[in-house]
Each structure stands twice: as C-alpha cells, then as structure tokens.
Amino acid sequence: MRVHMTQRKRWAASALAAVAAILAGAAGAVVAAQAQTLKAVKDRGALVCGVSEGLLGFSAKDAKGEWSGFDVDFCRALAAAIFDDPGKVRFVPLNAEQRFSALQSGAIDILSRNSTWTMAREAELKLIFPAVTYYDGQGFLVRRSMPVQSSLELDGAKVCVQEGTTSAQNVADYFHANSMKFDLVTTSSAADAVKAYDANPCTVFTSDVSQLYAERLTLAKPDEHMILPDVISKEPLGPAVRQGDEQWALIAKWTHFAMLNAEELGVGSKTIEQALKSEKPAIKRLVGTDGNLGEEIGLSTDWAVRIIRAAGNYGESFDRNVGMGSKLAIPRGLNHLWTSGGIQYAPPLQ
C-alpha cells in the first residue's frame, strides 16, 4: 500500500510531537524532583539549618538563645535570599556524629557546621558540598611551657582529638608518616577534648586551626597556650546538602558566591543602596537591576541584595565573626580574595 507523502509528514510530525511531550514531561518531573527542598522550605516558612553545638566565631548561642557566627551568617544569608528575612531560620545544634545522618534523613535542610569536604562524604554519604566557605587546615595546640616549636617535636605526645572527625585520621597518618609515637585520646565532643587537654591528661589538642583559635579562648589561662605553625592537612570547610536536588545545591553555592562577588566589587551592607543605583554592568547583574539570574534558580531578582543586607559581603562576615574584628582575630590568609593573594574566588555573575 502506498501512502501519500503529505500523510507521511503528518505521521512524522505527530511522532515528533509525542516524543517532545514525553521528554517535556520527563524534564518537568526532573525539575520537580530537583526543586523539592526549596518548596519544602517555603511551605514550612523557615529554613532548618544544622550547626555545631557551640564553636565561638562559627556557631554559638548566647544567654538569650540567639545564634551568631560565620556558619550562622551563611544560613541567615540563605534565608534572606529565599524569604527576604534572615530571621526565618531554625538552628539545630549537632555533634560530629549526628551531623550527616541529620542531613541524610531530612531533619535539616542544610548543614553549615565546620565540616570538611571529602570524596568519601560525597560518594558514600550521598552528599554535595556546593562551595568552600572557609579554607582551613589541621594544627596543634600546646602549652607554651613545652620545649617545642614544631609538630615534628611531638614524638611520644598524648593527643586529644574529637572522634568522628577527619582530625583523628589525619593525626594518626601524620605521626606514622614521620615515625613518631603517640597516644591518641578520643572524645565524643570538641568540648570534652578541650577539657581533657586543659586538665592535663593530654599534652596536645589537635583540630582545624580555626577551631584551635576558638577553643583556646575557653581554656582557664588562654595566654599560656599556643598554636604551632605547622598545618598538616587540607580542610576545605563548607555547607553540605543532599544529592538529588540540583536547584537547592545551586542556591547554596551562589549564596556564597554572591557574598564573594559583592566583596570583590566593593559592595557591602553599608553601600548596597548606592549599588542599586550603579551603572557598572557587573554590579547591576549582582543587584538584579540587569537580568534575571535569581529567577532562573528559583529566587527573586534582588536575591543578592537580600543576602548583602542581611549578612554583608564575605569580608564583612569573616572579619566580624572570626577575623581581626572578632575575639578570635584569625589572620585571613588563604581566605583572602584571589585579588588580595588568597584563593577565595567566585565565578562571575553573568
């Protein structure tokens, strides 16, 4: 049987339309699956953020129950981007062992708790670390009375460390690699590790250098202790989210990048109103007066403005919480912008 060419074209067009409809439906299902966290957060009316149980400068609660810190700022910035209200966030304190299971189970929307980005945590725990908000490394806290100037002089030391962290494995690898003997004392929390060190069962306390700065201030006589100059590991710290929700990972990633780009462009909490009137292309894209980048990831056009008003730019948050404007007075080091000799670098908003 011969079929007229016009009829064949109609059949082909119908088939293509059917395929297109199937693909569109599949794409719609993927988008819906990927948007599950943002929708849940909006429906709830608040972001649920996992933080540490209390680490000065990063996430700590005061006598009035108010949370503050570098990791807390990130969650407030994220809440501001979504709701235009940095107060719409509930903080859930978690210890090292609880943190990832709480995220996997959906008990929290995001983890912002001085956690190191590792391959195992992504591959085995099915998590994603969207960005590095703080470049750190592991170090050692010792008493000034000890006759040591380097971690290579710690042979035979009794070392306190928190279990369930990368620090325990790192210190074991370091001592073995340098043929040094050591006695490892593990505790369930950082606070217990510091108490054990302060009470003198341990001669050394090891953790991320940023945490050493914070915990040193909790000791009975902080000035009698020092942080050795050696850094024995890479500890890229940042927020974590569950795999399977690309949109949510993008929102977390670009919240950090917006703060970095704002600092690089000279836009901060005190200059945001002037920035809204700027004619500079890069600033216009940042504040949303040109383009709709925010809408493309499920936010508003002024999403970055909301972030900057709530938390400031990256430099403001760093200085206020952990840098020279804080009690910790941690040198910014690697966390300087790439334009200032550091490695904090954000992709462009375009």
Q: TL;DR?
A:
With 350 residues, the protein is α/β, with parallel strands linked by helices.
Q: How many DSSP-defined strands?
A: 14
Order of helices and strands: HHEEEHEHEHEEEEHEHEHEEEHHHHHH
Low-confidence stretches: 1-34
The share of residues in helices is 40-55%
End-to-end C-alpha gap: 57 Å
Overall spatial form: globular
The Cα radius of gyration reads: 24 Å
How much of the sequence lies in strands comes to 5-15%
Strand order of the largest sheet: 10-9-11-8-12
Largest sheet: 5 strands, mixed
- Total number of helices: 14
Mean pLDDT: 91
Q: What structural class is derived from the secondary structure elements?
A: alpha/beta
How would you describe this structure in keywords?
15% strand; alpha/beta; disordered N terminus; single chain; 5-stranded mixed sheet; 350 residues; 14 helices; 3-stranded parallel sheet
What does this structure look like?
With 350 residues, the chain is an alpha/beta fold. Helix content is 41%, strand content 15%. It has 14 helices and 14 strands. It has a five-stranded mixed sheet with strand order 10-9-11-8-12. It has a three-stranded parallel sheet with strand order 4-1-5, with helices on both faces. The chain has a two-stranded antiparallel ribbon with strand order 2-3. A hairpin with a 5-residue loop joins strand 2 and strand 3. Helix 3 crosses helix 9. The longest helix has 30 residues. The N terminus is likely disordered.
